[in-house]
Amino acid sequence: MTVQRQLWFWLVTAAVLLTLLILVRSILLPFVAGMAAAYFLDPAADKLEGWGWPRTLATALITLVFFLFIIVLFVLLFPVLQDQVLGFVERLPAYIDRARELLIPLVDRLLIRFELGTMGDVREMALGFAETVVGGLGGALRGLWSRGLAIFNVLGLIFITPIVTFYLLRDWDHIVARIDAIWPRHHAATVRRQLDLIDQAMAGFVRGQATVAATLGTIYGIGWSLAGLEFGLVIGLGTGVLAFVPYVGAAVGFLTALLVGFLQFGLEQPMPLGIIIGVFVAGQSLDASFLTPKLVGGRVGLHPVWVIFALLAGGTLFGFVGVLIAVPTAAAIGVMVRFAAEQYRASALYSHPNSDIGDDGDPGPPL
Prior knowledge:
Blueprint: H1 3-23, H2 29-50, H3 55-113, H4 120-152, H5 155-170, H6 172-180, H7 188-226, H8 232-242, H9 248-265, H10 270-296, H11 304-318, H12 320-345
Helix pairs in contact: 2-3, 2-5, 3-4, 3-5, 7-8, 7-10, 7-12, 8-9, 9-10, 11-12
């Protein structure tokens, strides 16, 4: 079989698998969640197995402890998060009125300063547009929370995910070995090398970035709640989740907290605003100096724009499941694109052997 026929075979296989995934995307959530949990827990199972534990016993213990922790955390946090999310939606009109009180005098002064006093209608139209946008955002948040609640009430997610996690975690090494056995023997070493790079990138995200996000979300949620910020817990946890998007996520979460704090306290109470800023600076300092270098390092290597695109594309194709797998998939695609670029630069398509351009990319002497 020629290389071109092998390439076409694998391209067709990938297209068929993608089509099947799209067709069954409505039932993928328990399986994707179980696979993610098994991948996350595999190092712990390997460590217990290295200490002499039977793999089945180690898997059963780890799975039980993990899902008990998730259940306890969900039971404790869900009522608080529900109250804060719904309360935030209800307070949006009050926030809009408060923003009008604070911003309209400022806008008036700016219009007078730049002699644009005849643009009062434009100002009102802009504020009305902002009110419409914020109101739509509130409806979207309410709908998102309702859909999320429905997802967590799905019996399949409750009963199937732990079973999938247990069996995948127990048989993880055997599954990897069987997958390794199907690669074309002539290219097996190259495929393994690229899969190792993909594993490093995904491990940096799934294990490392998830730990970073949980830590930062806890710091921000507790710190901003102690500062007296309304809905500080849900905003803080949301900022931690948004940390999956480097730089952009943290900035969006911080600006949201600062805006809510400004509307709540105003400039008359600078101390709470200072605490909000101080908590964010402390969290970012801890992240930059310890969390990300130790837990993530340079293994992910994804540009923020690529992460945002991956999240939007995954959500469009597969909904909530697509959001879960978006960044790991983007990490894998990034590794494959870098490999393809290396192969292209080493091929005659990049530098034809009969051309006047050298291997270093510099042209030959001018004619």
